[in-house]
Amino acid sequence: MPRTAGSKPRSDARVAAPLGRRACQIRENQSTGGYRIFSALDEVGPEPRAGQFYMLAAAERWGQRSGRPYLPRAFSVAESEATDGGVRLDFLVEDVGPGTERLAGLRKGERLWVTGPLGRPFSHPAELDSAAAGAILVGGGIGLAPLAILRRQLAERGVPIRTLLGFRDREHSGGVDELFGCCEVRMASEDGHVGHRGYVTELLAVLLEGDSARSAAVYACGPPAMLETVRALCIERGVEAELAMETPMACGFGACMGCAVPLADGGFMRLCTDGPVVNAAEIETALVRGSGH
User: Fold this and answer.
1) Gap between the Cα atoms of 232 and 179, Å rounded
2) The pTM of the whole model exceeds 0.90
3) Contact partners, residue 147, CB within 8 Å, separation at least 6
4) How confident is the model at residue 248 (pLDDT cuts 50, 70, 90)?
């Protein structure tokens, strides 16, 4: 994959997906604000790395005569836990269309087809910058999902973490207590219902003003406009950053070319195989057509 002159090499310690899709049983589905968290037991798959994703489709009532939903949907894993019976996988979902409506309505005991884990995960801060000992997590809306598992995996390695989460309004929020309840979180909301009234990127801008800004790497996931602001802020201040991005994905293996993202030095990357986590300095823009939450 082409690289920009300023971007840093990083390891590609992704967890490889078993061949084919496999059926998992839904163990729980709970409401959280305007979202839902559903859990599935993967009896044979490996534990994923933070930032990796799965292609999901309900085993029943998917792709029927109406044809919708038909293709599986790509979802970052929000949390995972190894159990005696396999790996529990948690996903955060918002009902915004035929596919997400069906996934949000999954009931305990139903079956879920999963393919994964797929894609490149987040890097350790020291892999991005040897001077970066800590991490700043920036999540917007349902984009907080992959940051939850990242926070836990970094904390287990002793990395100092600051977490910033933002939401549009009360109706488009959720997951904080369930996924971040054990840690300190700074909040922002555009309607002022919680925390700072405004954008979460305004909180990030304040953190990056100090002389110690480069002592931490930034990790972000959220709406494209938020990611573009994070990208610009970090490049301007010389702070290493990784973005977990979203584009329409039909296959998850790089065959359909539907998830192409323009690179800063020309050409494209396939987000499903070269991402979904990308170095902020590598891409031309985070405002990719068809993306969004």
Assistant:
1) 28
2) yes
3) 50, 137, 138, 139, 163, 219, 220, 221, 244
4) confident
